[in-house]
Amino acid sequence: MANLLKSAQLLVSDLASTLLFLAVLLITKDLILAVALGVGLGIVQIGWLLARRKPIDTMQWLSIGLVVVSGAATMLTNDARFVMLKPTVIYCIVGAYMLRPGWMNRYLPPIAVATVPDLAYLFGFIWAGLMFGSAALNIALALTLDPVTWSATMSAWGIASKVALFLVQFAMMRLIGRRRAMAMAASS
After folding, report:
1. Model pTM?
2. Which of 5, 50, 54, 72 is surrounded by the most beta carbons within 10 Å?
3. Long-range contacts of residues 13-21, Cβ cutoff 8 Å, at least 24 apart
């Protein structure tokens, strides 16, 4: 259970700026406030890690950098369509990053890296597929829905799809990892 919580904590940390943006947009319907708070949180997160001399993973830089850059562009244009299509670009960039073998190892405990590296490799590509599918869905919804309905729908999809895949992956890797660890112990 500790490994599940640690993995979930890393995932929430990486997505914190986006989650804050979506929550503020849904609650206040104020695009500029939502963007400003999301960008602010992203900057604070990087500053906190730098101040503590903690390593900043590529995925963290990518996630927070995209929020800051696209958030600044959104505030300059004050155009809801830009912010609605922005996640498509983010999903595609993150999906492309997730095509890199081994990206997932940061989120896995050492025992999983040792016993189920093949599953980590496979799930890395499944996560990439989810990102590309989400990008396509976002384009369709951004072009057909109003901003508030879009943000509610994409928020629900984004959270539900990622939590569902995370839980499936965790259960499969844990089950298969335990079987392999027991088989390795038995053969020793």
Report:
1. 0.69
2. 72
3. 13/45, 13/60, 14/59, 14/60, 14/63, 15/63, 16/41, 16/42, 16/45, 17/41, 17/42, 17/45, 17/63, 17/64, 17/67, 18/63, 18/67, 18/90, 18/158, 21/67, 21/71
